[in-house]
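Appendix B. One record, verbatim.
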Amino acid sequence: MAEKQTAGHDLLGDFAPKFAELNDGVLFGEVWSREEELSPKLRSIVTVSALVSGGNLEQLGHHLQRAKDNGVSKEEIAEILTHIAFYVGWPKAWSAFNRAKDIWTD
C-alpha cells in the first residue's frame, strides 16, 4: 500500500491549500495508490523519466529516492538514465546521474 503523502500540506498548505490538497490527496492519494494498474516501481521509472525529460530537477532527488525505495536498483537507474539520455538530452541525463549517484551510493 502506498505511504500517505503530506508534503503538499507540510510545505505549501498555508500558502496554497488547494494545490497541497490536490498534491497529497489526488496525485499521491489516488494516482500513486493505483498499484494494481501500475506497480510503484514502474510509476517511479515513469516519473523519473518524465522529470528528467522536462528538466524538472528540483523534484528529481525526491523521486530518485522514491524509485530506490520502490525497488529500482543502481544498475537499473543507470540503464534507464543512459537510455533516456539519447531522447531527452545529454546534459539533463548528466545532471540526473549526479543526483542518482548520491542516492545509490548510500
